[in-house]
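Collaborator request, handled under Task 6.
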Amino acid sequence: GGRAIERAAAMAAAAAPKKHLGVTEPISLAGPQPIDLRQSAVLEEYLVEAKLYESADEATHREEVLGTLDALIKKWVFKQSMQRHGFSEQMASEVNAKIFTFGSYRLGVHGPSADIDTLCIGPRHITREEDFFGGLVPMLRELPEVTELQPVPDANVPVIKMMFAGVDIDLLYARLATPTVPDDFDITQESVLRNIDDQSVKSLNGCRVTDMILRLVPNIAHFRTVLRALKLWAKKRGVYSNVMGFLGGVNWAILAGRVCQLYPNAAPSTLLARFFRVMSLWRWPNPILLTDIDPGSLGLQIWDPRVNPRDRAHLFPIITPAYPCMNSSYNVSDSTKRVMALEFERGLRIMNEIERQKTPKYEQLFEPAPFFTLYKNYLQIDVASASEEQQNVWLGWATSRMRQLVMKVERCTNGALQVHPNPKEFTLSETATSFFMGLHKMPKTEDGVQRQVDLSPAVKEFKAAVMQWMSWKPGMDIQVQHIKRKQVPEWARGGEPPKEAAPAAAPAAVADAQAPANGNAGGDAEQTAAPSEGAATEGANGAAEEQDGAAAPATGAAPSADGGKRKREDGDGANDGDANGAATEGAGEDDVIGGGAKRAKTHADDSGAAPEAAEGEGDATVSGSDPQAGEGEAKDIVEDDEKVDEEGKPGSVKPKAVSYADMAKRQPSGFELNSSVAGTGAAAAAAGAAVPPSQPAQAKKPVIKLAKR
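Structure tokens returned to the collaborator:
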């Protein structure tokens, strides 16, 4: 009898409506003080000055464009129903289609030049291949207001990209299992996912996740202000890029929403400060959730590390709130996690200072990260093609693979070396773009063993994987070279790119590249992806994740297969507490943050996920090549900064540091790529001949040859 009563009480408690949003009770219900309101006003003024808000005229123009697009979609469905599917005029007039928006525009945090992520939902007889791409694209080509039309049917989330009356539009398509789309169609209902294809599920979930986020935050106006500030901060600090292994728009939205749930009555300035406190204290890999995970009734795979082995390896799980719930941040690696942790700590220190100021100044918080002063060693990745048309697709594919270089370096050095990718693209010309990655040496082993670092296997493997793309064509090339801080080009430090830049792959590099591209055209997993896969989507959801060499199916945002031609501003599209509300208002943040939660530990610890490794402190430097290494296999010997400084002289740099400013003083002096890699391809052709493996690397020349136009 007693057990039955306990079970009945537990069921009643579970069925009782929650008095709060989120998986735990709030940390604090305190409202804003006058100083909080003043600081929030200053913050909003700063965001306005940063031009993060569009004008009334621009907002009106966007609404007019969406209205025109909606009318065009209805006309297209009517035409296709009659001409291709044999409907009578009466039947075709009863068929309907609808346009939905998602991402930053739907969240209300878009900027003046941001694109609009749109989703067209059509009936079951209107197909994606024959009707959407085969019928709608020709109609769009005939419209004078449509420019830069780029259909991407082979992307993981197929999309039509275009400029419509000067507004950047990404248009996705979802095909329902019903004969028409009712006017009162509710996209948040689980039933809309029944009996539809995977691509439609991914497309629909972009809208579903966005709508769920707005439903799960206590104050939408405060949420939007905080999210605008966080996105600006993330872009300035170089941690806004899902494809590079950082976080995209939907990730930041979920994080901001969770902090709003924990402090439901706080002012925006307070929420921004609490964001950095929560993120600095969070115990990853405990997940961030806005609501309990819904197992659903359709049998779709959801994020659950107790069941799915892949989910156990996730380092930074941020779970989407709409069914099927998935980890939207599986791209995060050890290296990018370390960078974000440092940035959260920096943000916390600055916000603590700002909160003590009567007249707050937010300029320091939003200072751009001094990327090219943080490290002593960098990788420069140059992506070049023979023509602008080639470069548009080649750059999209190469960008989607950049995260693999980070992971391969981590793996081949056994974690001794971590990589900080810079999301910024440096466009030298219409046919050449460069990327940079900082190299961070982790401390030597506990027994004091000197670590050896050889990047050549990772670089070779990365280049081979990129070149083994089925759509590769002669002229497409990618080169990776190691440079030291003083060798970083002036145009990368802030100067203008060379006006005469018109790089093209050197003949030697092209000839060298043809073999792997053509010779492996049949059976590598890398070849199965479309140019835009992985570059797609900083999206809201994904049915599966990208493994080493497989494309990443993320949902909720359109792929950026266009390379550098049309740049996306956004890709928008916790189980940090006890699901039963064990944390009370008076609970300390350490009790709620980072898995004081039973449910969070169930998802993380019971799954067998390894606990987070301690971040290393201190860097090292390279003295040269290992004399024991065979010719052509020269490996770099790593020594302590306490022994060798940047010029190779004795130094006294202490290894203890956590901030970027201190890190910049402790970076290693140099890592040399294996000369068999650094001296081949376009770089060797530019130098005239390959550097003999047994010789130290000479002054490096640019991988891409610059020629006058």
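The cover message to the collaborator said: "Residues 56 and 62 are 10 Å apart (CA to CA). The longest strand covers residues 432-441. Please let us know whether this matches your experimental observations."
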